[in-house]
Amino acid sequence: MLVVSHLLPILVKKSYKNLVDNLAIQLNYKKIPQNWCKKLGEDNKFISIREHLWGYRFPSSKKSLSSTFDRFKKEPRHYATLCYVPLPGLCTFHEDASRNRIYSILFPRGTSPFIRMVMSNKDELFYDGHAYSKMIDSPFFHAIVKFKWHTFARWYFLTYFIVVVTWFSLLIASSTVDLNKNMEIINLNNDYTDKITIAATKSYMAAVTMIGNLNDATNTFVNNMTIAEASKSNIELITKAISNVAASKIYNVNFTSEINKAAIEAVYNAIIYNTTFTAGISNSTITTINNNYVTEINKAISEIDITAINKLINSTDGNQIIIACTIIEIIIIFLLVRLLIIFKINGLANRVLRVPSSYVISTGVLFNLIVVILKLSPPEAFRSLKNFFLEHGYDCISVFQTITIFISVLCIVGYLCLFRNIGLYAYIIMHICRRAICILFLLGILLLNVSYATMRIFATTIPDFDDDKKMYNKNTYDNYIKTSNNVWSGFLNASYDYMYPWDSRYFVSIMRIAFSLFASIIIMNLLIAFVNNVYEEVYKRKYTEWTMFRARAIAYIELTCSVPNNYSFSSFCFINRKNKDYFPPTIIYEANTEEFKKWHDELPNLEKQLFDSTYPI
């Protein structure tokens, strides 16, 4: 059987599915020989409080590998039988040819048959058609995974998970500090805008007042009205210009200067020369008013205190947090790079580079590095990048922080999948999303087609006349974004209020009925049926899905956290691959008698005959 253990990964890789399936049936529930445990009777049955498939190493160890966590794994008393995995050497490593101690610790060579078999799948998801599907679904494989997880893998995972959660907590704390700072900047921006708006209003009224009583004919309009009423249109244009700049430059480092500049240059805007007030006075008078206004507004600006604004903009609060976050991220990057190198030298790099989760993690790390660089760099650095986002109304750092946090949450959820209650349903969701790509792609094309077709006809169709408002209804299809939102809203809610401007047209009623039939009845029910079928299919093997995911995580941990030899200076953070407490020749596990009977009864007749011909319990 030692030869079979080493040939098993090759059989899986070469897709000898029938042979592997038959072998998997014969390897399950093998009773330990009588001489292995003389305390038990001939039937090897005893009363246990351990969960089904709880494993031990063989030969037995004097050192207890149980922990506080195991106390929560106790089950009601039940009959169990000791079985073993009849594949000696499946979990052991071959000798490392490297003689360099440092190199062996940093980048250990060698893999076990267990790792090669687990990593033979190029996808993160489990499919029945894979050559090792029956092997992964076997009780003895579940027993191996449980043993490895309980003895060492969970401790390394929890350590790494604590590091990731600490990094994420620092990231959230830094983002919260920045959010509070941005909110304060927004409030100060609004206050400063209000002050400048009031100052501009008073300055313009003062500038007009300085002209005195205008007696010439061209200024009779001003003389016949109060100054406030006469200059109202101009003041509204000035304040509007100030508000627009204040809103668009809110994340600009020197937004006060931009607002001041807008307040000064507002009187030279071409629009202001077309108002009734400006058209009623001479050019020389306009020039005088403008000069007076600039003098008054500059005086008012100089009296406004902006110390608090500058202090807040130039504050470095949160930089200490982001530095601590960066230190932890450097550690995480080192671990990820080391993992990739180890997989590369052991011929498993393609398995890492072909799974989507690797790119999700890499993207999260990359975006966080961008955030760190942007936050710790001088304000004038990366000005073109920041201005690009400012032109579209976004804060550059906030955008990258948002993406980083979103991806980081996905990564943490991925790590939490190692816990059963979370992992079982997370993988069901992943299967549904993976298989729904084609139907969602088709749905997207259809919705885009409907959006363009409806915009093309309604954009050039005159809306109905509203007798109450004495005006034509507003066109709700005047741009493609609004049209897409209308169609999407109709698809989700079956609400067609956006077609109200053309309710009197017969073809609108026909379109509404046709789209309702297509979207609300056919497509929605098709999606529901599709999701339900995938859910039922995956739910039947949800435990196997989760076990496979945990097995891959254990393979990652074994490759990166174990070393070929027992080096004293590395024993505190690495385990020795020659330590039989963690890598035994074989594994003994407890088989719950009731669970075995249930498994045996569910076997197809041919597989049941094959199993019964060997060594059943």
Automatic annotation (TrEMBL):
One term under GO cellular component: plasma membrane
Regions crossing the membrane: 155-173, 321-343, 355-377, 397-418, 439-459, 506-531
Keyword Membrane: yes
Presence of keyword Transmembrane helix: yes
GO biological process, any: calcium ion import across plasma membrane
Domain of life: Eukaryota
Entry's Gene Ontology molecular function annotations: monoatomic ion channel activity
Keyword annotations from UniProtKB, A to Z: Membrane, Repeat, Transmembrane, Transmembrane helix
Official protein name in the record: Ion transport domain-containing protein
Organism: Rhizophagus irregularis (strain DAOM 181602 / DAOM 197198 / MUCL 43194)
